[in-house]
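We treat protein structure as text, and this decision shapes the records that our systems exchange. Below, we set out a record of this kind in full and without editing:

***
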Amino acid sequence: MTELGLYLSRKSVNRSDVARKTGLSKTRLSELSNNKKTKLKVDELYLIALALDVDPSEVMKEICKDLKLVKL
């Protein structure tokens, strides 16, 4: 499961509702939630945040929490 999938699970989100509100297909939302190789586009993240009625930066911080800058 991806970080987005975990986030949606913690929020007890109905994925069908999110798909309907965002215009994303259920298949695409499932791929974003379950396949770590699937890349999330910024417009998709923004639409998902709007559908959940949360600040997009909250979603981004949560799903990108493990990213770190390379020390030079």
Summary: Helices lie at 3-10, 15-22, 26-34, 42-52, 56-63. The mean pLDDT is 95. The radius of gyration is 12 Å. The chain has one domain: 3-63.
